[in-house]
Fold:
Amino acid sequence: MGTHAAGLIAPGTQAGASAPHTPGLAPSTPSTGVVPSTHAAGLAATSTHAPKVIAPERRVAPLTPRQRRTRNGAAMPTGPSSGNGHLDSRTFRSVLGRFATGVVAITAIDPADGRPYGLAANSFTSVSLDPPLVAFCVAHTSTSWPRVRGAKVLTVNVLAEDQQAVCAQLASRGGDKFAGLRWTGSPGGNPVLDGALAWIDCSVEAEHPAGDHMIVVARVLQLDTHADGGPLVFFRGGYGAFVDPSG
Structure:
């Protein structure tokens, strides 16, 4: 990782401009040399990068009895509220929204009807190198997840900075989410979206209920890079791009 701080700008704008919230999608073209039915697969176990352990810089004080009291799994104060740090849904979303993430599209072919289904998520992370595991969260109210979950293999697409409209389409409710989208099949047979930065074929390893979401842990089967470009970034409720000021 570089030593320069990164800035967020909306795709297609100059640094310093405000990021628009209107979705926009640059025309996608198939990657050169891609065979429509398959992709060259890379195995997660062949990674040559060794994980680094970062030692904490300071000790963390143990929780006091006042801090240990919880409500719905969140630490709550026992005394009068000072106004600062007050926990409610709006504050929770606002504070957590300051943590920038990438965005993925999780796709599969429903074996029941042979049609593609998918959903967008920004709660995606790597979990383990050995065995190779990733995880993501889906809402209990999702109507697409049961369709995707029904497949033996699902595919994670890492979205690029010009795929905000793709993200919005897959995050919508109802209708044909793949209308107008171009894609080819992964080795597992699922949609790899044109323009996605990478794809990961995986199978569900475990599901853990967590509040209003389900934490899904998946085992990586095959994966590879796809198109070139920068990532789609989600920050404070809006979308943007990752920019290196030194570039």
About this structure: Confidence is low (pLDDT under 50) at residues 1-74, 76-82. Residues 69 and 75 are 6 Å apart (CA to CA). The first helix runs from residue 65 to 68. The first strand starts at residue 7 and ends at 9.
